[in-house]
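Anyone able to model this chain together with zinc ion?
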Amino acid sequence: MNIFFVGTGGGRVNLIAQLRSTGGFMLNGSLKVYVDPGPGALYGSKQHKIDLSKIDILVVTHNHIDHYNDAEVLMEAMSGYALQKKGVLVASKSVLEGGGKYDLSISRYHQEKMQQVITGVAGQRNSVLCNGKSAAFSFTPVRHDDETGFGFVLSMDGQKIGYTSDGEYFEGLGEYFKGCDYLIVNNLKAEEDCIPDHMDSGGAIKLLKEAQPKTAIISHFGMKLISSMPELEAQKISAKSGVKTIAARDGMAVGGGEGMESKKSLLDYVKDEDEVF
Ligand SMILES: [Zn+2]
Ligand SMILES: [Zn+2]
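re: yes, here you go
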């Protein structure tokens, strides 16, 4: 299995500036799982030759635009141009139904194009079976503005990948991520720039000391951290936590296994289009 980062940016300023893409990332194992497709997911996928029609599971962890913006268009690709009922959507209650200050962020029309829709709830587990292959999600809690949001630990192909999603550190968060091969941390800010509701490097250090993953990957950087080199921040986190930490970059693949490159050319898409319309 490998992890492919389409976009590694987060934060309100970078969201508009797109210094780093906000396209989210993919887990490529026996099932293809796309996580948090913010603005740039569609364009980045084209850039990196990702065949979106091959995505089995789409995960949208919460109702913030840097996580859901391109979800519907990805679902059109997953469901054969929205002509079939295909694919699995895993999303928070706020994304699927709205509630409180949120409207739903994926239309009912698109939700109905999926073969299965799963509401991710912190503390629960769900197994997904697609074409005879399986992946198991264990949803983790977040302390973030969208209270129905979640992080997860995904078990697939004998590996465990953890993802914090957005949210600040709280005592005990690391317990949920014990035993991970990789832990992806949405580390918006540097250690000295603590910000409520989001993870900064100080929180990441505490989290990693508790969780002890084999490797940590920091991503979802805010503008200030992007300008001050996330690689240096990763070095600091490694030194202080004792956990090997790397900084994600747009277009970076981590881990072995099947490659990302799609064999499908633009011409193939044009051919598909001819068949469909
Ligand atoms: Zn975010
Ligand atoms: Zn958020």
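Residues 258-277 have pLDDT under 50 and may be disordered.
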